[in-house]
Design brief:
53% helix, single chain, 98 residues, 3 strands, 3-stranded antiparallel sheet, mainly alpha
Length: 98
């Protein structure tokens, strides 16, 4: 079972949506056209990772003085953890929005 999938038809959600979209951006499933939006778990995970990333950046930067390498390591850790947390989207009821 895929970690990030449509709650309606279980087709995989685009990696680019999960990693680079804003929390308010809606996503429409390619297979079943269900409308999804980020849920509270994704917002809390992103906020926690932002604080963790700033701590990690200062920790690595104190030992390694290469700015590019430090930034690269922090981004890789940030996006990897964000990708590993499941169930970050929920369906939007389109009937009540209209």
């Amino acid at each position: 079972m895929a970690k990030h999938q449509c709650p309606n038809c279980h087709s995989p959600i685009s990696l680019s949506y999960l990693l680079f979209s804003k929390y308010t951006t809606q996503y429409r499933c390619v297979k079943c056209s269900a409308l999804m939006v980020s849920n509270r778990r994704r917002k809390i995970t992103g906020l926690t990772l932002a604080f963790f990333s700033s701590f990690l950046y200062s920790l690595i930067n104190s030992h390694v003085q290469n700015l590019f390498l430090t930034t690269l390591v922090v981004f890789i850790v940030f996006f990897s953890i964000l990708w590993l947390v499941p169930n970050q989207v929920e369906l939007v009821d389109e009937q009540s929005k209209a």
